[in-house]
Model the fold of this input.
Amino acid sequence: MQRTQFGEMACSIARTLDVIGEPWSPLILRDVWVGLNRFDQLQADLGISRKVLTERLGHLVEQGVLDRHPYDNRPRYEYRLTAKGTELVDLLMVMTAWGDRWLAGEAGPPVLYRHHACGEISGVDLRCAHCGEPMHAGDVDLMPGPGAR
Amino acid sequence: MQRTQFGEMACSIARTLDVIGEPWSPLILRDVWVGLNRFDQLQADLGISRKVLTERLGHLVEQGVLDRHPYDNRPRYEYRLTAKGTELVDLLMVMTAWGDRWLAGEAGPPVLYRHHACGEISGVDLRCAHCGEPMHAGDVDLMPGPGAR
DNA sequence: CATCGGGGTTCCCTGAAGGAACTTAAGCTG
DNA sequence: CAGCTTAAGTTCCTTCAGGGAACCCCGATG
Done:
């Protein structure tokens, strides 16, 4: 947890950071997305301290991003993405696109995405939800919304 | 800085987190995007400690996301987004879309985006860069890429 | 009944975030 | 031209979060 809480700010970016802004949280989400659903799998894959992993999983479950449910008679649990969490994967895909473009270097991207609809190796692009045209940093005006303070 | 460095991992998400994963960094980026370009403006708007702001700005400049340049004969500097940084705004727009949808509550979104191309209040949607069809969590297969280890 | 293995919890240590005071280098002001 | 002002940091101290390792619990298994 950051020392300062961002959740109270009138800003969806700050609020989102309150949910997945802590160190490790996006990587935990990525791992759960690709099928590493159990505590020890996550701990081994990430090399995160068990204490911090406990805290992060607890927070993500509390925020409704992950779901913790038993997979055995024994006290064993799996973490899965909720609908809310699944939509957060959008964020990971955009991070991947940016990292692939600016940080991958000579070696190229470590992971490729094949799109089901067209079968091609591709990445995401941002479009306007309304008209379908590209929508990036310079393509919008910002205006106060109903939740502004 | 997180204790653990993510940059060495063969993962574009982890590498991207090494650039803007530290607390405050996305909010600094947002502020610079909307036109708060100076140290004191950022400090006042965010309520961040001056020490941490100095560290963050230094890191973002070092990573090529921001550009620091003088705007006066006096030792005064402005921070601006580079091309690399401007593309990171995509990430902010996706965070905004998710936060608007899942965290805004009754009050509604604090900020609205009006899209230049269509003039409508809208948000971003993720499309395949190749075929233009929607591209979300369930729409892709992951495959090892050339930079895999 | 001892062992195993998954899923944590506890403890201590270090280092990063917060906060307030101090510094520096022009300009401006009377 | 001494003193004030302002932007942009820097320094120092305190507190709390992250890392790491050891330990615990609990049902199943041999």
About this structure: Chain A has one domain: 12-139. Chain A touches chain B through 87 residues (CB under 8 Å).
